[in-house]
Amino acid sequence: MARPAAYSIWSLVRNALNQHEGWQRVWRQPEPKPVYDIVIIGGGGHGLATAYYLARKHGITNVAVIEKGWLGGGNTGRNTTVVRSNYLYDESSAIYEKSMQLWEGLSQELNYNTMFSQRGVLAIAHNRHGLEEQNRRGGAIRLNGIDSEWLSVAEVKAFCPIINTSPTLRYPICGAMLQRRGGNARHDAVAWGFARGADAAGVDVLQNTEVTAILREGGRAVGIETSRGTIRARRIGIVVAGHSGVLAGMAGFRLPIESYALQALVSEPIKPVLHTVIMSGAVHVYISQSDKGELVMGASRDSYNSYAQRGSFNIIEDQMAAVKELFPIVSRLRMMRMWAGIVDVCPDASPIIGKTPVENLYINCGWGTGGFKATPGSGWAFAHTLATGEPHPINAPFTLERFATGYLVDEHGAAGVAH
Amino acid sequence: MLLIACPHCGPREQTEFVCGGESHIERPPTPEALTDHDWGQYLFMRKNPKGWHYERWLHAQGCRRWFNVARHTVSHEVRATYPMGQPPPVIEG
User: Fold this and answer.
1) Secondary structure E strands in A227-334
2) ipTM at complex level
3) Predicted confidence band of residue A414 (pLDDT cuts 50, 70, 90)
4) A386 and A357 in a common domain
């Protein structure tokens, strides 16, 4: 079949002149084949990125991505689109910075506008302990060759004029850590861009296909049972975020993961007032302005396990209180929509990317409240793991075995969302 | 928002409570005899079910006592609350 033509200024002009009736379908709707080399369960950003890098970097194209619903309909389409790589430990720096470097060339690589905008991510400290933690983390980040600056209160005010730096605040601003290379990307576009790229390389993207069982023979995974029939595969990767425990249960092993609802909301669209991303771990809100003008806000996760994709109202109440104190300008703004995603939280706030106790079965999960930023790096590393059967050095520390050896990568401070 | 019936104080708003996660996890009686793998299983591995979940809650802004809750993780329905030390109720379906 014909591969889609590249998007360019010329295709835009040509289609504009033709009333936009000539745009092609972006990916195929193939029938499942009975056997693939590699099957990836989960058609979110991470799964699609894995398929893309398997095809483009490792030349493995006999691959299927199995998605229960529609592409990017889970956490990929439900996050607050923040991208950054300001983590504390060397292990995290390596994988999040790899991801950041992939982000920086992603629109060109995919020939798909991911609207990646390096508008800066500013993390606010509200007390002395917050400042000390930021100084420690900022130093660690710079030692790993990643950009990080510290801003005084006056510099914070100059960088973001609408922020309230009054010393009489209940939680006054004491300073902030800025990563200028951080920013936002269009979350749907990331899933669609990777899906289009993977599909063009020959990967079968199977939507509305639910996995009901993982087939095992003699302790090794050999295929999956789906709502559209049996599919056998040489290797299988699970990339299903909140439902990781359900899939692990099908394969007969356990995970140290608990699933929680993490919610976000947007305001009505307004003129540009916020050109950056502001995060506050202490009063707990993170906020940016979308290209449509909506203020996009996230907060803490719910405290109890949930698979319901809806959040509690008391979280919104706390979140609005925090936003209103930091940005008095928004006090009469109406909030338009709220939603939640089911996040897979690990005890150390770091992911698990690698082997499982079942041979030929691999897992990429535990990204918890901060998976979106890692989408390209996670896919890149998991593709290597699935292609070679062994983890790449950048995901080697993130094994399931670390919960037996004790080699945890404790990133609660950098995770942004309180656990 | 959940309405949780504290066994000691009666029904109260969720914001009075703190969720303490999965209940009925017993500390192994002989930790020194366990392998690292088995200790990790006890310490970190969780059921995290999509369905009925038996969990500990603390009535932090009430009687300050811990108790158990049987709650569904999709509907969030609270089916039962029962004191610590009691076995979980059997729930059909």
Assistant:
1) 229-238, 258-267, 277-280, 285-289, 295-305
2) 0.96
3) confident
4) yes
